[in-house]
Amino acid sequence: MTDNTSHESTEKDPHNVSTGIQDTQGGRRRLEESDFRPDPEIRARNENFMMTIMAVSFTMIIALILAMSGLTSAFMADQVKGLRLVAWSMALFVPATILHLIVAKIWLGGLVTENIKKNAHLLVISLLGAILFLWALSSNTVFVFAGFIGANIFFPLFGRYILSLEQPFPKTHMGSFNLTPFSRTSMIMILFIGVIVGMGIGMEDAGSQATGRGLFARNIVAKRIGMTHRSIDLIFYHLIKPYRVVEAITTARKRGVAVRILIRKGTLLVNASDIQELLRAGAIVRVLPPDTPSWLRPYLIIDKRILIQGSKGWADDPIPFQRQLVIQANLILFERIRRMENTFDILWEHSKAVPLLQTTSPSKI
After folding, report:
1. Do both 215 and 140 map to the same domain?
2. Is 360 inside any structural domain?
3. What is the per-residue DSSP string for 137-167?
4. Distance between CA atoms of residues 289 and 293, nearest Å
5. pLDDT tens-digit series, residues 128-148
6. Contact, 71 vs 148, CB < 8 A?
7. Which of 96, 128, 217, 278 has the greatest CB tally within 10 Å of its CB?
8. Whether 222 and 290 share a structural domain
9. Total domain count for the chain?
10. Global confidence as pTM
11. Do 236 and 267 form a contact (C-beta atoms < 8 A)?
């Protein structure tokens, strides 16, 4: 008699009929991918959390792009402007990273507790980098590049520490992935887009910009003085039609900007009324010592980070061998700006103060 039990059970099992796959030796069905699929509600929940995690991760990537843009613009144009852009990126990156941790904790129900102490050194070093960044941002220093060093320490270490506390993310379905801000693809995108955006910002305000001579140059100088936040250090020998520059310095003094001015002895006669007007506004004016080097040329340092230098570029008439005014403010020239500031400080210590007269003649300008 033929045993048809196996054949009959196959016909009566609709699941085996649909799959049509059976182990010929053991008589048991082989497991398929569909058998491991989670409950539809769980799968929908996982996909919603995954989309949220990807959105937060993309926000972190945007913050890193802003940081790269700030670094690029600092090399091209203005170092402090680039540092402020990095500050905005840090203000976006920190809450986005913490939100990433919160979402992961709610989704997965816990943290990798052993990594809290194991990777604590990453958190400590990243916070030290943040302190260095905040010092460079808030202090009146020429060492602005230290802020970028601190930011480059903070971003990867702080992000790595927070992400190390999260449980591994499950795949919601075949082909799903988690967009992380420190993957190879993300870093390439951050570098590429960040440099392009930074170059666009840098082109708006060139870091080494020739301003020419005469009225055009004086207007740019007055505009730069009007943007001053902390300090103005100026050496000049003769101001032709100085009312724009004097008015800009006077307005800056009303905002509390510290102003130091060095002049030659002959300038007291040539620009006497303008110097007295600056003294009344609160600027401190001193006369250079007699043994001042002959190679010293007029220049202006704004906020200890922007150098405006030239020979007699503020004059209207062309003079042989005179140099145009040049504005230098990018990160590459920080050492030159620092040396010029040190030179000013040395000359300032050996100069004689100009007194404020009680009665002054009206300006002839």
Report:
1. no
2. no
3. HHS--S-THHHHHHHHHHHHHHHHHHHHTBP
4. 9
5. 999 999 998 887 666 788 889
6. yes
7. 278
8. yes
9. 3
10. 0.66
11. yes
